[in-house]
Description:
The structure is a homodimer. In chain A, about 60% of the residues lie in helices and about 10% in strands.
Amino acid sequence: MGTLADDIEAYLKRLLSEMEQGTLDIRRTDLADRFQCVPSQINYVLKTRFTTRHGYVVESRRGGGGYIRIVRLTPVGRSQIYSWAYDKAGRTLSKQGTEYLLARLEDAGALQNRDVALIRNVIDQETHHLEQPLADIVRASLLRSLLTVVMGS
Amino acid sequence: MGTLADDIEAYLKRLLSEMEQGTLDIRRTDLADRFQCVPSQINYVLKTRFTTRHGYVVESRRGGGGYIRIVRLTPVGRSQIYSWAYDKAGRTLSKQGTEYLLARLEDAGALQNRDVALIRNVIDQETHHLEQPLADIVRASLLRSLLTVVMGS
DNA sequence: GCAGCGAAGGTCAGGAAAGGTCAAAGGGCG
DNA sequence: CGCCCTTTGACCTTTCCTGACCTTCGCTGC
């Protein structure tokens, strides 16, 4: 027995799977209409089940001719290791912590050696001039972002 | 799905791309006529889609023999767009500045639409909870890093 | 020369058509 | 009961499109 949110999620994922290019354009009102619910319910589903964390990107436009576009980043459920690393990064991350995560990701085959090197370089360049508390915060932010983009392309 | 404004925009860009020298002269009335709309709709399109921020300059003249001229600013070449954007990002970058850079990168064919969406999302997610001065710094850092990784993969 | 007319284009405010936000109410489950 | 996830509705912001009214320019007749 699923909730309404589950049904909408499943419906969207089915539509998405039928789309080549993994991109779906849809109108919020139509969707709400089909499921006989208030439009904001759609936003709830998007916010809880279609985040970058889950491997999706959502864009939208308001006004006349407005729409909601859902883009799937990875065809099959993205690797567990990604979610794990994403969570592990947290809000603040030391240099050693970063090395540890990158090593695990490479071990798991989620990242190639060159990607690891690239990421390490970039993070270093962006943080080496920062003081302690801020550096760790920026590092976490960077790692989360870089992982999302690298694994999503 | 496009709105009328989208259609007019596309039409103008197509005409523009056919012009050598990237300059297009056209009459407002003719355009309005072709798209069956009021003339001021044309001004709306020009004001929302052909600003200098979008890489265009618009001049016009009123009165008899009046016209509207759209000039496409010479785009940054694809080979240099990356370092151009990297420099432009600088150490601090506003939300608008980010949009501008992403639009230029997409125009130049350096980034696909989905990459732009992804990057925009990630940057948003990582900065929306930050205060003004810090948000701009982190944004610049993130954009530089993401560009490096995306173009380096 | 210049006043006046007609033919451009410009501005602005308002209404309509989307989608977004947020907080409160509802509902299961330990 | 208390907590977390879901659902709803009231209210907000953005975008598009139109129409009324304004400004600028060339031309023509005096």
